[in-house]
Amino acid sequence: MSTLTPNPLPLRLAQTLGLTTTAIFSGVSIALSTILVPRILESPAPLLVRQWGNMFARMKIVAPGVMLVSASAFTYASLILPASLTKHKTPYLIIAALNTAMLPYTIIFMSSTNNKLLALEEREKVGELELDKDGEARVAITSETAHSLVDWWGMLNLGRSVLCVAGTIVGVWTVVN
């Protein structure tokens, strides 16, 4: 029997669920920027915007749910801590905040790029995606191309990944200590 509490199972389950979802999503998020984006950048512009659009459509469904589960697990863990471990309440709440910070990060830093790529994807779907002499799809009359936007999206996503990794590190440190 643990000295933490007579029944540590709910706390252990919350810790396990929180750490598992945060760590897995950290890996997924990093893989999007370091593995997926470089591969789809090899594609011609019309295929590139379809591939990015498919990934975006799936991740906008999966990511918020995973981060909500993780944030909820760590918030719950902070609420059921035994009195002897109240010093861990703040780190658990920090982890939950890091996980939920992905939403404002996405809105503040990534929305503009997402919207441009979604517009290119929509133009491709209806057959109105025009290519220049280099075979590149451009956003209006700017110098931004589908490839440069997806590349920039990958960099912005790495920033979002830092939030996940930080949550994982704080989570492991909190559970171990």
Description:
It contains 5 helices and no strands. It is mainly α and 177 residues long. The longest helix has 36 residues, at 45-80. Residues 1-6 have low confidence and may be disordered. The chain is elongated. Helix 2 runs antiparallel to helix 3 (89-100), helix 2 runs antiparallel to helix 4 (102-125) and helix 4 (102-125) runs antiparallel to helix 5 (146-176). The chain is 76% helix and 0% strand.
Helix residue percentage: over 70%
Cα-atom radius of gyration: 20 Å
- How confident overall, as mean pLDDT? 89
Structure classification: mainly alpha
* Spans where pLDDT lies below 50 across 5 or more residues: 1-6
Tally of alpha and pi helices: 5
The count of DSSP E runs of length 2 or more, i.e. the number of strands, is: 0
N-to-C order of helices and strands:
HHHHH
Biggest sheet layout = none
Strand content: under 5%
Our measurement of the CA-to-CA distance between the termini, rounded to an integer number of angstroms, reads: 18 Å
Shape: elongated
